[in-house]
Request: fold
Amino acid sequence: MRFLFIHQNFPGQFKHWAPALAARGHEVVALAIRAGETISWSGVRVVPYQVQRGSSKNIHPWLIDFEAKTLRGEACLRACLKLRDEGFVPDVVVAHPGWGESLFLKEVWSKTKIVMYCEYFYGSDGADVGFDPEFPADDPVGSACRLRLKNANYFMHFDQVEYGLSPTLWQADTFPAAFRGKIKVIHDGIDTDRVVPSSKARITVQRGNERFPMAHGDEVITFVNRNLEPYRGYHIFMRALPAILAARPQARVLIVGADDVSYGARSPDGRKWKQVFIDEVKPQIPSADWERVHFLGTVPYETFVNLLQVSAVHVYLTYPFVLSWSLLEAMSAGCAIVASSTPPVREVITHGVTGRLVGFSDVDALAKEVIALLQDRKSARQLGRAARATVVQRYDLKTVSLPQQIAWVEGLVDR
Reply:
């Protein structure tokens, strides 16, 4: 069979799935926005293409996102036409539609079956938009109109896509009921053989000429975001630090994340969100305590895994939004987790069984639960074991997710 994967930053969510299909003898091609020549990666032929121009000047602000998706869709269309002219006709295309690349695929291969990766469908209420009253929209009606146009991308896909795939039930349920029946829920998968608990784990953090070694069993609190921003609760976590540091004088806090934005808006005064909340809480923390807070920026994956393995308590907070891989990886590493009681977190964590849940904005409850787990290491270990067991049973890459993905997508060819 022939499969085509489309992701502007391939491999993205397809980093295991595409190579697995290639290993089974299928011809697998991927399209990605990048410079350079066609390469072979893990048995997948990765074909680069580029968008020919940027957005128009003076375009209506509500149309900037839609035009960008149209430009990307056209660029992908041209790349697909070239593949077709070379004789490549896929049986199934698996595409992430979030940036518009897959808008025009049926114009190239009218009989090819298309799978849309259904990561998230934006709504003007009931999910991330308007969730955090601390950051209200300046123009709520205008914001709703922007979202309607943002979702136009998905509506243009619905009549040409035969199937959808979503990593969680909650994310699938954000999509309109008329399309929801087409969506299969299979998580991307967690490599639980690679992300494992380790009593021998060590990590050393450096600040200037000082080195701070930490090991499994130490009071290490971890917090991980792609970017440090309110969407993932960075502001709530920072506000809990004064109480946590005061109560636990031996604890160290390791914060991973860049200082840009991934999902939400930038701060009104132009400062990075990282600095906004450092400036807010630092005056409340004695200098000696602040020295125990370490901002690591972005780190290599192996360092990230080591960080989870030494973590005594891992904090994960999020608006009702896309579930981060990092939460499930923390569970796989056997971390004791304190997380926000928001969907889709409640889909994977049961309070008191596989972690502790608190209201997203409840700073006092967050601090209390972190302190309690640092004090009660037996309960922390029990939560960590149960968390890992859940991930192994429901989200393991090799025994659960990948076999389901392969069987499902190969079966589409015969339907």
In short: Residues 20 and 354 are 30 Å apart (CA to CA).
